[in-house]
Amino acid sequence: MKQLLFMLVLLCALSACEKETLDKSNTASLPVVSAYLQAGQTPLVKISRQVPYGAEDNSSLLIDGLAPVIENKGQSYPLTQNADGYYAGDGTWKPQAGETYRLSFSYKGLTVSAETLIPAPPLKFKASASSIKIVSFSPGSGSGIPTFPDPIKLTWDNEEGDYFQVGVQNIEADPVKINDTGDNPPGPNFSTSPEQTNEYELGFMSFTYYGTHRIVLYRVNTEYVTLTKNSTDNSQNLSAPYTNVTNGLGIFTGVGADTLFVEVTK
Amino acid sequence: MKKILLALLLIPALAYSVRAQDLSTIKLDKLYNGWFNEVLDNIGKEYGVKFVYDVEKLSRLAITERPFKQGLDEFLTSVCATHKMKYYQATDGSVHIIGRFENPDAAVTAKVKTYTGGAKRKNITISGKITDKLSGEALPFVGVRVPGSGAGVNSNVDGYFTLLDVPTDTSTLVFNYLGYEPVTIFLTPDMRTSGLQVEMSPASSQLDEVTITGERADLMQTNDEISMIKMTPAKLASLPSLGERDIFRSFQLMPGISAANEHTSGLYVRGGTPDQALTLFDGFTVYNVDHLFGFYSAFNANAVKDVQLFKGAFDSKYGGRLSSVAEITGKDGNTRGFNMGGDVSLLSANIFLEQPFGDKLTTIVSARRSWKGPLYNKIFDRFSGEKQSSNAFSQFGTKVSSYFYDLNAKATWKPTTKDVFSLSFYNGADKLDNSVKPQLPSFLQDQGTDFNINITDLTNWGNTGTSLKWGRQWTDKFYGNTLVSYSNYYSKRDRSVDGSITDADGNKQTIKRGTLENNNLKDFSAKTDYELKISSKQQLEFGAFITHNDIAYTYAQDDTSTIIDRHTKGNITGVYLNDKLHLFKDKLTFTPGVRYTYFDETGKSYYEPRVNAQFHITPQIKVKGSAGRYYQFAKRVIREDILAGSRDFWVLADDKRLPVSRNDQFVFGAAYENDKWLFDAEAYHKKLTGLSEYSLRFTPSFRQISYDEAFYQGRGIARGIDFLVQKKYGKWNGWIGYTIGEVRNNFPVYGKSDFYAANDVTHELKIVNLYKWRRWDFSATWIYASGKPYTAPSGGFQLDLLNGETTDYLNVSSKNGLRLPAYNRLDIAATYHFLFGESAPASISFSLFNVYNRRNVWYKTYEIVSNQVVGTDVNYLGITPNITFSLKLK
């Protein structure tokens, strides 16, 4: 019996003496980059920091005093700070479609960098109609579900199987609601998630407000799709969010955009 | 106390004869008047019967009886009943009178009778078949031993046994089976040596007034083979249960099998994951063992005869999994006549029917179905998550049905004494439905409009399995078993909005949005297994197997775009050989074996050498060890979506994105066992390679997003020690199990360092107490487990998206770098046994889960609130009561 005990103790000792080599890395101080570069538009880059876990921190999240640079074909274009945390080009140059641009800056002793390709603007972006008539209905009015208008069909070219996102924005100063939707009405703006498609329908259920709407079609890169399709919030599957920024977080990506306008009338 | 008892037993020993008599042949026909002990003494003198009783007790009980040619057995039954006593006849013929609720003394029932004449033959072979005395069912894996010699063997799955080199034809055979009274057979020279029919009676019959001859009270048996546990479902009723007697939940009370996973009844064995555990039901593989979010296992205890669980170190007969094997043998059905029974609890109803047809065919059907009682709803609400029902229409909708069911059916045909054919069928499914059908507000319903929208949130999964088996005892030394089987596992998840709205003008708008997931796995298998006894020192086991797997997984969005579409087929073919050797006067059992597999998906051959050894230092103390290699070809991948009921899908390894997994395992242990106690310790070390993990974080390429690339490869180490102290016998019995262990993984995608696997548990302690008092069984189980590792955010950030919205992102610290609070829980139960009507055994069981309402943390969720990341605990189930009523005809 003593021998048995001795063996057990020996086993315990053997299994317990290996050194820990577990990961103790800390990425809490990495900066967060947010930038969408468009062909023909002055680039604007937002740089902020993370909020801490479990402790309140009311100081500004934006990082100022940095010197970011965008490079293309050996040329480098410094960005200047135009507000806390926002850095813009000087207006003398603009990104070109089909070109690759690289952002870099130094933060806390590390070189933060990211690279992206500027996609071409969407081609043949069309709407089947420029306005849609939506009748309001309200409970108790006896009007029933009103007649449906034909939806507005948005179409564009997508032979390459690219990802597109449609953003809809009500540009009225004081938009009027179509129906009474209660205490927490949806906002006037909405967008689709990026899909490999060449059409989208805006029906009577798409709109909540009357007035002029700006419809922007974005051709987006896969890095953006990856970012938007992944967001987890529980401890069982928490993994680092996708980023294309080295030594940093967030997104530095090119988009191609085209815009048209749609009227929602009574 | 023991001395007094001994004295009591000796005082009235009026030993006129030691020959066992049939008490019914003794006819009493006169007046018996006096104290109970005097009456017995008189009868003893008159007819030569030896009575054993407590003088003090019986000398206070007066008797006046006038039997008319009444058998002594009837007389005793009636007299004992009057005085709340019972009697039994020991194997030496003596008649014992004891209290109604007392158990027979093991010392008295010990078998003392042996044949006294000379032996005629030596080193003989004894073969036969072992069956249940009540139902006639064949009993598998019964231990057959010759006390005092090393000879011993287990019956096979069809109940046949062959014992070679039995010393003489006057030896004694002892049959031991978990949950049954031991049976002793004294060989005589004129007894047949083949085709012996041995009947064993279930032990747990507290209601028997007569003839109880010793009882082995343990629920689990652990020290037979290395890393192996046996369980008898018949005794499960006495453990606390949450609605259902559950085989897998009960295994989780043993050391080495993690109990702190309320969300799955799958087996986390020694650092393995449930998909690394092979589950066989009557020979076919069951790929998913979960009912109701995993709270219950898919097996109906009423349909199960025997379960063996190998925590590792399984021999080369089994393969295709890294960690463990659970082999479940279904009941064949009663051979003696019709029987039926069932259980009703707050969760489900369960019924079984058994019907023999002639001598050769038996059938059993058992079925159970959950009902939407309070217990079901509580679990459903806890595990389905609140987020699911919070859609815009839910205020108008009503919850629709949600249930699980399973069905077992089996027919067994024994055309000859050597052949057994059995056809077994299993079908079980879960339907978890959180769908709503919005109703149009009443003010709109009369307007001639048609509003037909369904918001679907449906999770379906289930298994169908069937096997046809032919077992044949070719000769005493050669047994073969051939089986063909089919198994299907499907899992569907539909979260969508569809339907149509028709307006007053008859215009119709159709809507279809959402995601659809579908996993369908088919397994067609054939295998043949043989056992050849070369001598009493050597048994060869060999066989061949082929499995065709056909696994499809699709993940579609909006009915149009298919995001993942995998369809893989593969054949796993192979042979195995196992050589069981008994050496050094049977002190050493040494079993080398090898398994060869060809997997056509990779086009490679896989060899798995394995060896097990056990050495008895003394009859009580043994040391044991095992080394082996294990491969796994089909694996389950968890898609990390906590809201989905079934979150997993199976894929076949291809050696490109998905490597074939391998486990090189060593086990070493020691055990001390006597009649009442077992002390056991086993240490294990596993080196795992070719592990796969799936992450939603897919990798973009230029224009396409490749979901296949979301599989990451890694390796791991699992090691630990299991300790067990078990009190096997007595009114109070139970065990304490403790495991210290760790599981570390290393996936390059997460960095160079190791991290603790999600199923890593450092300390796990289980205390199981069972106490029997009169007709009551009481039980209490306490479980403690160190907190599981989890990944906490180091911080969070908000990112402006293209549409102007901002989205929260959580950045992570080291993977699985923190620990949840420790898990602990106390469950208690009380079961009362009684006779319903004249003879139907019944029981009612009260059970309380998580008695002190411990808020055990399942996982945490995080959100960014006013410049900080805040975590919220999501808890497992709190205090939950249950009542179960069980009844059977006989």
In terms of topology, how is this protein built?
The complex is a heterodimer of chains A (266) and B (890).
Chain A: H1 2-16, E1 32-38, E2 44-48, E3 51-52, E4 69-72, E5 75-78, E6 80-83, E7 86-88, E8 100-107, E9 110-117, E10 126-127, E11 131-133, E12 152-155, E13 163-170, E14 190-191, E15 199-202, E16 211-220, H2 222-228, E17 245-246, E18 249-265
Parallel strand pairs in A: 1-18, 11-18
Antiparallel strand pairs in A: 1-2, 2-7, 4-5, 4-8, 6-7, 8-9, 9-17, 10-12, 12-15, 13-14, 13-16, 16-18
Chain B: H1 2-10, E1 27-28, E2 32-35, H2 36-47, E3 51-52, H3 55-58, E4 62-65, E5 70-71, H4 72-82, E6 85-89, E7 95-99, H5 106-109, E8 122-132, E9 143-145, E10 152-154, E11 160-168, E12 172-176, E13 183-186, E14 196-200, E15 220-221, E16 228-231, H6 247-251, E17 277-281, E18 284-285, E19 290-291, E20 296-297, E21 304-310, E22 324-330, E23 339-345, E24 348-357, E25 361-370, H7 374-384, E26 403-413, E27 419-433, H8 442-445, E28 450-475, E29 478-502, E30 508-535, E31 538-557, E32 561-583, E33 588-599, E34 604-616, E35 621-632, E36 634-638, E37 648-652, E38 661-673, E39 677-694, E40 699-700, E41 705-706, E42 711-727, E43 732-746, E44 755-756, E45 763-773, E46 776-785, E47 789-790, E48 793-800, E49 806-812, E50 818-819, E51 823-836, E52 840-849, E53 857-865, E54 868-875, E55 880-888
Parallel strand pairs in B: 3-7, 8-14, 17-22
Antiparallel strand pairs in B: 1-5, 2-4, 6-7, 8-11, 9-10, 9-12, 12-13, 15-16, 16-21, 17-18, 19-20, 21-22, 23-24, 23-55, 24-25, 25-26, 26-27, 27-28, 28-29, 29-30, 30-31, 31-32, 32-33, 33-34, 34-35, 35-38, 36-37, 38-39, 39-42, 40-41, 42-43, 43-44, 43-45, 45-46, 46-51, 47-50, 48-49, 51-52, 52-55, 53-54
